[in-house]
Design brief:
The chain has 259 residues and is α+β, with helices and mostly antiparallel strands. Helices cover 59% and strands 15% of the residues.
């Protein structure tokens, strides 16, 4: 009878312990390792682009168990009492809280479809005009530029002069080719002179800018080839989110009393 009572008591104790076992990944040296650590580790891996499959649960368990073993040994050696540990722990705590603060802000301030459309419309308004396929020859002095113009009038090839004399290494090696670009891509003096030219025309006089003196030729003109909203929407949303977050950070800094 006594033996039966002891067995019954053991069974009751085992049943009572089952919920605790279900909540723990393991028990290391008598200390429970919560299963929640596996869940957090899985979330971190997923955020880093490594989704966790059911088959990886065993690996997650081994990882949290190993960490617990190593942590217990570090505590046994008193490493958790050092100033270095405490300072690093504080920095880690701050990083986690700040990340959660910014995540909460993003969730509460999502970028709507209307916001993305409005930003795209501004982009189109600023870049939806004409694009120019131009060439230029850049030199340091005006008399050099005047001589190049004279040589062009005598029949010299623009591309050859650009390769030999242009101090712009990027375009000079390609005969002065600047590829297709909107006027806003260039400094104002360059743009103003370029948009006055028709296809095939060259500036009649050198154009002075902060870089030197330019001789500009327009090879072709077309309407700007802009991507559709769907093609750039993810980038627009990300940009707007970053802008809002930066403004939020600036507002917090402005309100803070720093002595």
């Amino acid at each position: 009878m006594k033996k039966q009572l002891l067995q019954a008591a053991a069974a009751v104790a085992l049943l009572a312990a089952l919920p605790a076992f279900a909540q723990n990944a393991a028990i290391v040296n008598g200390k429970p390792v919560p299963k929640a650590r596996m869940d957090v580790l899985a979330q971190q891996l997923a955020a880093a682009g490594r989704p966790v499959t059911p088959e990886m649960q065993g690996q997650l368990r081994e990882e949290v168990v190993a960490r617990e073993i190593f942590m217990q040994e570090a505590q046994k050696q008193g490493l958790d009492a050092t100033d270095d540990y405490k300072n690093q722990l504080e920095l880690a705590r701050q990083a986690i809280l700040i990340r959660q603060l910014f995540d909460n802000y993003r969730k509460a301030n999502t970028v709507s479809d209307a916001d993305a459309q409005a930003e795209y419309d501004k982009f189109v308004a600023a870049n939806g005009g004409k694009e120019y396929k131009a060439r230029h020859i850049l030199v340091e002095k005006e008399d050099q530029a005047q001589k190049i113009l004279a040589d062009l009038k005598k029949g010299a090839k623009f591309e050859d002069l650009a390769k030999k004399q242009s101090k712009d290494p990027g375009s000079g090696a390609n005969g002065g080719d600047l590829d297709w670009a909107a006027p806003a891509s260039f400094v104002p003096e360059f743009s103003e002179a370029m948009i006055k030219l028709k296809k095939g025309e060259t500036t009649p006089a050198p154009v002075k800018s902060q870089f030197g003196y330019h001789i500009i030729r327009v090879d072709d003109i077309r309407q700007a080839q802009l991507p559709k909203l769907d093609e750039v929407k993810p980038q627009i949303v990300q940009q707007l989110q970053q802008q809002r977050l930066q403004k939020y950070q600036e507002e917090l800094r402005a309100k803070a009393k720093v002595e």
